TrEMBL record:
InterPro entries: MFS, MFS_trans_sf, NO3_transporter
Topology of this chain in the membrane: Multi-pass membrane protein
Biased composition (Basic and acidic residues): 482-493
Superkingdom of origin organism: Eukaryota
Segments passing through the bilayer: 46-65, 106-125, 132-151, 171-190, 202-223, 257-276, 288-308, 328-348, 355-381, 387-408, 420-439
The protein, known as: High affinity nitrate transporter 2.5-like
Pfam families in the record: MFS_1
Subcellular location: Endomembrane system
GO-annotated cellular components: endomembrane system; membrane
Organism whose genome encodes this protein: Dorcoceras hygrometricum
Amino acid sequence: MEISKSEYEYSNPKTFALPVDSEHKATEFRLFSVAAPHMRAFHLSWVSFFACFVSTFAAPPLLPIIRDNLNLTATDIGNAGIAAVSGAVFARIAMGTACDLFGPRLASAALTLITAPAVYCTAIASSPISFLLVRFFTGFSLATFVSTQFWMSSLFSGKVVGTANGVAGGWGNLGGGATQLIMPLVFDLIHKNIGSTKFTAWRIAFFIPALFQTLSAYGIFFLGQDLPDGNYSELHKSGDKHKDDFSKVVYHAITNYRGWILALTYGYCFGVELTIDNIIAQYFYDRFNVNLHTAGIIAASFGLANIFSRPGGGMLSDLTAKKFGMRGRLWTLWLVQTLGGIFCIFLGKVGSLGLSVAIMLIFSVFVQAACGLTFGVVPFVSRRSLGIVSGMTGGGGNVGAVLTQVIFFRGSQYTTEKGLELMGVMMICCTLVIMLIHFPQWGGMFCGPSSKGVTEEDYYISEWTSAEREKGFHKASMKFSENSRSERGKKVDSAPTPADRTPNTYV
């Protein structure tokens, strides 16, 4: 007697170290576990993203030395800072597409390895243009953020996805602060202990982040797994995963206005964070006449807040969703990001060193928490085009950083403190568009769900044509619809689930 595949899986269910839902996504987040595939992928992803962040922002803490060696003007430094974050704009969108089609493991490992040579080549930069180019190509590596968020959204259930995305993204972003400490220490070690000249020591120092990034790429490739049930290539061959149509994946991403709104708002939380990473060490060095090491420590404290602030934002998103559903996530995102804008304005206005540091630390908590809150919403925008929506949102962060630096921190049109004030105003204004986001099955900030009785199934299955549904390509979306009912919350009305339309289990 022949046993069907579904009957075999029912009688021989897969087992995981963490409790899972019907998609085999983990319903718990155990930070200190390294269990495969869920928690192992979490640790691989944040470490790799951390390495890429260290590489991208390895130059700013050494700029007082580098600018003397390469004769960089203020405009050269501004252009290089813009180049470092502009490279990832389109790379993040491309990364989202690669994740949708080939899986986060291969996409992340490939980009991390491809961009590592640019970090090594920083050691041989000899002019303003060559310095700009190596920073530009190194910045492409920041697109690994998209694969990190995609990976976490593919492995963790909606109940904890905000936490998983927040901790992975936050600990990765931690590299922006850690490099402010690492690079000056490595420089001092080479310069003072080994005896290299200043202009040689900063060049040798870049081999440390380059090697770290290279090793992380190999770790992702050999130890990671795309989905709870296996890698994309294996699942495509076995027929367990439909190989999607590129044009349709793109179409459903770009026609969903919610993704564009989140891209804009992310431009003024993560984009602001990138801007601060580029300017803050030099700002304290020049304005308050502190030494290079002290400026590095102050700047590092901004990025190091990611150890708890961005994860805190993700956790807060999940916590509010338990009671208030998606509407709670949206309200919390708007409030936290608006407060971040207010403290950014204060940072530009205060004139004493101690108060500036204190305001900067408070500001860092809010702006980074807003990043975590954003990616508490992103996984629910689209099931079929999750990668591209994540890429659009992530790319929006880089676009915001580029525009902000071009407008406020390039050349001498504005002082840095005035630029900080105006950046805060921009944050507050751009965050207002969150009020326009509305999910027909859950509602928005001010409006409840659609009166037409749209359900989670209606929303996510609408991304598939009737012909595709007949072939069963929509089954993963059906499972996701069932698992996303938690976004209704306990205190918010939402569309009912007709008993005759949604089966209890999907095969």
